[in-house]
Predict the 3D structure of the following.
Amino acid sequence: MYIFSIIIPVFNTEKYLKECIDSIIKQSNKNFEIILIDDGSADRSGEICDLYQKKEPRVKVIHQDNEGTSKSRNCGLNIATGKYVMFMDSDDYLENNNVITDFVNIFEKHNCDIIYGVYKGFIDNDYKSCTYKIYPKILKIDNAQIKNLNTEEVIQLLFDNGNYYSSSTIKIYRRDYLESNRFRFKSNIYLEDEEWTPRILLNCKKIYFYSKEFYMRRIREDSIMTTINDERQFKKIVDMIEIASDMTKYTESKCKNEELRKTFKEYYKAFASGYINLYNEINGIAIKSKAKTIIQNVKKL
């Protein structure tokens, strides 16, 4: 059993995968396992995973048909042995060699369920046509401010300070917290973090804020989020509307704090409105018509 598990879904990222894995192997705390889920890659990603497994006993590799990020992460959770867990995307990397040391020390000292951090976004050098704007992610809240607040008050404070981030990769988890609540990612959807994060936050007893930029998030061409095609945009519209509906109901029933209930409702209303941009990106007449029908049939959130 290792103290730390890093779960990485891998799909066609041969260009970036070594940098991702090496940033973990270089960590000063060596008490970790790397779980690589090769999600049906068509490039050399699966081969790279196997090469690391052969030379590094702490690397576990699972090869599977293309199942998507959620199922890959769930697969990793099912075999993880670490006391603490984090997720990474295979085109990203850790910013320095003391990240795991810091996290283990925080968990041991503060007995928290989740460490809540920030990432540093950067645009890949080859993404010449990128119009993506990167805004610094700075935590405006410190741990002293939340010392006497309950979990719902802490989440509301995140919203109030513009620090509510849905990304699962900038949160680190006590594995027994995930397992005791049977938390798993919802399968077969895009934007799965929008469904995962409220459940993770609302059920935890203690959150610790980590203000250092530890996670380097790459914005690149041909990623799941930047690739545009009609079928994918249609599926994102369907998923976006479903997530907004389900999570509005969930947060309304879960939150005791009336202000937070309203905040989540407004958040998911704004989130769902993103279907407008997705709809405008669809070119095919038949798919556009199908998307329009779904949008028109949506009940008000």
